[in-house]
Design brief:
extended; metal-binding; Ubiquitin-like (UB roll); alpha+beta; Box C/D snoRNA protein 1; six-stranded mixed sheet
Length: about 270
């Protein structure tokens, strides 16, 4: 037993492969290692160690995924008139604002977490918004952001040296310590190949609605807050949609792991 080192082991944890002798030792090892005891079905297995059992496990995992997706597609909420009416209203109102809003099928993470609403009385969107600060590997989710609020006001609680929350300010210290003129707000251009990721730069002095006009949005806007003084490879298109010149690499910025995670999540 790898927990008490006294008794002969009888059990092996499917998650971390630790040997245990009793239920008490099993519980102790889960608590000490923060182990849930559930086998990781997506863990990497090298070709040399791949067996028929691994193949069978992968096959059953794909079956479970297909079964879950089918169950989600059959869920009553998907086909309820109220849900369809709400999504149609959101897309229609966005189209009236020159915004192409696309929604994902139920079961997708972005579809589940999206809380965007439209207030017919105020004739205003209240957006679900995600802010990503790649230089600090931080992201924040905002709910109910009015579309007439400027991007500068939206970012104040995060990167303003005076008005930002002390805890957030400490985490985003590289942003608060930099001049506000170095802060750039980017939004990924949708419907492009994965090997051709491009971004639009947004105007912090203008409202969220003005910045979203003429753009394609999948579920809700995701804004990347970057510093132009740091070297990155995020390619920003010009105002006319043209590719930047090769000698303007210093004016480009980039994202790697954070953006890749976002792509996998939205897929």
């Amino acid at each position: 037993c790898e927990t008490c080192s006294k008794e002969e082991a009888k059990y092996r944890c499917p998650r971390c492969m630790k040997y245990s002798c009793s239920l008490l030792c099993v519980k102790k090892h889960k608590l000490a290692l923060s182990c849930n005891g559930v086998r990781d079905k997506t863990a990497f297995v090298s070709v040399n160690e791949f067996t028929d059992l691994n193949l069978l496990s992968d096959y059953r995992f794909l079956e479970d995924v297909g079964r879950t997706a089918d169950a989600a597609a059959r869920h009553c909420i998907v086909h309820s008139p109220a849900t369809k009416r709400l999504l149609y209203c959101l897309r229609n109102k966005a189209r009236g604002c020159n915004i192409e809003l696309k929604t994902l099928p139920v079961g997708f993470t972005k579809r589940r977490e999206n809380s965007t609403t439209f207030n017919s009385v105020e004739n205003k969107f209240y957006w679900h918004l995600k802010l990503i600060f790649p230089h600090c590997h931080a992201e924040y989710t905002l709910k109910g952001v009015p579309d007439d609020k400027t991007l500068a006001d939206i970012l104040k609680p995060y990167i303003d040296p005076v008005e930002s929350d002390p805890v957030v300010c400490q985490r985003l210290k590289i942003y608060t310590a930099s001049p506000q003129s170095d802060v750039r707000i980017l939004m990924k251009i949708e419907n492009r190949n994965r090997n051709s990721v491009r971004y639009n730069e947004l105007d912090a002095s203008r409202s969220l609605l003005d910045n979203l006009k003429g753009k394609v949005i999948i579920e809700y806007p995701t804004l990347f807050v970057v510093l132009k003084t740091l070297k990155n490879d995020m390619v920003v298109l010009g105002q006319d949609g043209s590719e930047p010149a090769e000698n303007s690499d210093s004016e480009s910025s980039s994202l790697s792991s954070v953006e890749e995670g976002e792509i996998r999540d939205s897929s």
